[in-house]
Task: structure prediction
Amino acid sequence: MANHGRVAFETLGCKLNFSESSALLRGLSEAGYAKVAMDDRPDVVVVNTCSVTDHADAKCRNIVRRAKAANPDSFVAVIGCYAQLKPKEIARIEGVDLVLGAQEKFNLAGHLESQRIRKSGGCIETVVERGEIREVRAFHPAVSSGDRTRSFLKVQDGCDYFCAFCTIPLARGRSRSADISTTLVEARKAAEAGAREMVLTGVNIGDFGKGRGQTFLELCRALEEDERLASVERYRISSIEPNLLDGPLIDFVADSQKFQPHFHIPLQSGSDVVLSAMRRRYRTDLYRDRLAHITERMPEAGIGIDVIVGFPAETEAEFSRTREFLLESPASYLHVFTYSERPNTTALRIQGKVPMPERKLRNKILTQISIKKQWAHAERFEGAVRPVLLESDVDDAGRRSGYTPEYVRVAVDGSAKFAPGTVVQTVLGGFSGGRVQGTLCTD
Result:
């Protein structure tokens, strides 16, 4: 096998990006590349970008500068959502050699080989390989590896919803997935690599099996029942749309031995007026019903909620409705996003732009609510004994951290002697510094 040099990956954004980066890196390793850190003078740097987070251009430029500082002769390839949306903009960044779109990135090794040869021949022009997103139909499975504790399993890609604020359908295309049997093959790869917890991820995972006559619930059942996945102790469902989180799925999780009592459910606004303007496919009554069903079946479940502040048409009154909705909810934490204008989204046509200082103030208000919710969720378990799945890092006090089934982060005293991926029974103490202090159970 040819030695193509050393490659470093820099990944921005969501769990889906991380699972794809891991899969692409495995492909490069098979092609003869050696994985290194950015500071180890890589010959190739791959930047997997995101379009959801703010300042994508600045973040990409910063990584390219770091790459060139580490090795001025490095070959820099930029892939991912931002590369699909703004290829020409990325191509103008000094130091970028190759830009690959949503479909093209899955032939990363082939593109690197041909374009590095081209560059060695004296060509200095940045090459852009990017097709039209409406032509993207293939689903490329991916699963993160290298962490014996947790793996991210990509089960779905793309989205058909076209919410007013979102560029994801423009960056990733239509909703698509593999079938259940193919997805199980990918899951088994992670299990064979030692993963003890698997997070099911995608753009709109509740859409799994669309057009195939299969459902996300059927996939979850298959994962739990597969004998070749017996070593996987935990599954978590990543962000899932409330209209697709139906009663049978909630009941399945409640009765499951492996799927954890933890949900992350986008709300985006507690105002029906704003939800309508956002073109969301539910209203607050449905969302309340979903929360009530969860808390009825799993009273201690961890519940994360996404919310956007400062969307056009979010008046002070509508924001107050969101704030009150969240205060009354059983949420255990919030992910608060400040609305920012995205090219080619229908939100740009909505009247009632909220000034940026007001958007930031609203973010601050909801962030404070999130802190209080996280604290209250953790306090429910003080004095209880809970299983904690230990992770890799050891802090200065000799403790590993990990999560309970309900997604409470715990730093466990005396846990450094255990290997990552070990489940330890832990007495939970007080909450500080964003995590609970825990003590190994001696009984």
About this structure: The chain has three domains: 5-131, 142-379, 385-440. The chain has a mean pLDDT of 93. The chain has 13 helices and 18 strands. Residues 356-379 form the longest helix (24 residues).
